[in-house]
C-alpha cells in the first residue's frame, strides 16, 4: 500500500497493482509537489500521468487541487487499480486510460496539458523515452502549452533524457537513488530555484 501525502486526500492509502509497478516514494512525491506548488503548477491544472501504475503521482495532483487528471498505463490491472483508487478517495475529474503511452500521445491532444508526469519503468530504454518526449513536444495539435511543466522521474543510474527540439530541462533534483528532471517549452522562464540544484 502507498499513501497520498497531502491535500484533500492527504494521509489516505491507495492500492498498488500486484506486479509491474514501482510507486514513487512518499518522500519524492512530497519534494516534487512542494516544488510544483511553489511554482503554481498544480492548482486548477490539467494533468497527464503517463506510465501511471497505481496512479500515485496523478492522484497526488488531484488531491492538491488539479482540475483534471488523466492516468495512462498499458496494463489493464494498473488502470483498474487507478480507477478504484480515484473512487475510494472521492477525487473528481480523474479518469484512467488503458493504452500504450506512445500510442496515446499519437492521438488528439485536445486542450494542452499544464503538467505532465512521467515515471516510466526503470527498464524503459532511452530511445523509447526520447520518442515519448518528442511526441509531447509536437507542434501540431500540441500536448503542451507555453507554460506547461514536464516532470521525468528516473533511476539515478539513468542518463539525462534526450530532450527534443522545443523542450528543455529547467531543474534537476536528486533524491537518493531517484533523479527528477523538471522541463518546459523552450524559452519558458526557469523556476526561481534553478540555481539551488541539489
Task: Explain how this protein is built.
This protein is of the alpha/beta class. It has a single domain, classed as Vaccinia Virus protein VP39 (Rossmann fold). The protein is 26% helix and 28% strand. It is built from five helices and nine strands. β6, α5 and β7 (144-155) form a beta-alpha-beta unit. The longest helix has 14 residues, at 76-89. The radius of gyration is 15 Å and the shape is globular.
Write the layout of secondary structure elements.
Layout: E1 2-3, E2 13-14, H1 26-38, E3 46-50, H2 56-63, E4 68-73, H3 76-89, E5 94-98, H4 101-105, E6 113-118, H5 126-136, E7 144-155, E8 167-175, E9 178-185
Parallel strand pairs: 3-4, 3-6, 4-5, 6-7
Antiparallel strand pairs: 1-2, 7-9, 8-9
Give the % helix.
25-40%
Tell me the strand order in the biggest sheet: 5-4-3-6-7-9-8
Give the total of domains.
1
| Low-confidence parts | 190-198
Features:
9 strands, seven-stranded mixed sheet, DNA_methylase_N6_adenine_CS, alpha/beta, 16S rRNA (Guanine(966)-N(2))-methyltransferase RsmD, disordered C terminus, 198 residues, two-stranded antiparallel ribbon, transferase, methyltransferase, Rossmann fold, SAM-dependent_MTases_sf, single chain
Task: Give the structure's gist in a few sentences.
The protein is α/β, with parallel strands linked by helices and 198 residues long. The chain is 26% helix and 28% strand. Mean pLDDT is 92; it is low at 190-198.
Amino acid at each position: 500500500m502507498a499513501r497520498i501525502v497531502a491535500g484533500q486526500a492527504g494521509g489516505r492509502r491507495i492500492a498498488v497493482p500486484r506486479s509491474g509497478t514501482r510507486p514513487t516514494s512518499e518522500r519524492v512525491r512530497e519534494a516534487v509537489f512542494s516544488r510544483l506548488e511553489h511554482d503554481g503548477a498544480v492548482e486548477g491544472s490539467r494533468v497527464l500521468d503517463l506510465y501511471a501504475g497505481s496512479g500515485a503521482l496523478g492522484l497526488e495532483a488531484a488531491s492538491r487541487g488539479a482540475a483534471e487528471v488523466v492516468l495512462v498505463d498499458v496494463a489493464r490491472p494498473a488502470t483498474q487499480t487507478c480507477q478504484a483508487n480515484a473512487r475510494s478517495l472521492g477525487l473528481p475529474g480523474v479518469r484512467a486510460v488503458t493504452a500504450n503511452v506512445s500510442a496515446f500521445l499519437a492521438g488528439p491532444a485536445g486542450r494542452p496539458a499544464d503538467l505532465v508526469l512521467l515515471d516510466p519503468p526503470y527498464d524503459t530504454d532511452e530511445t523509447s523515452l526520447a520518442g515519448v518526449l518528442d511526441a509531447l513536444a509536437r507542434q501540431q495539435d500540441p500536448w503542451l502549452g507555453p507554460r506547461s511543466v514536464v516532470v521525468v522521474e528516473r533511476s539515478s543510474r539513468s542518463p539525462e533524457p534526450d530532450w527534443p527540439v522545443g523542450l528543455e530541462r529547467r531543474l534537476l533534483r536528486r533524491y537518493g537513488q531517484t533523479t527528477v528532471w523538471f522541463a518546459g517549452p523552450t524559452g519558458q522562464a526557469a523556476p526561481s530555484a534553478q540555481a539551488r540544484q541539489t
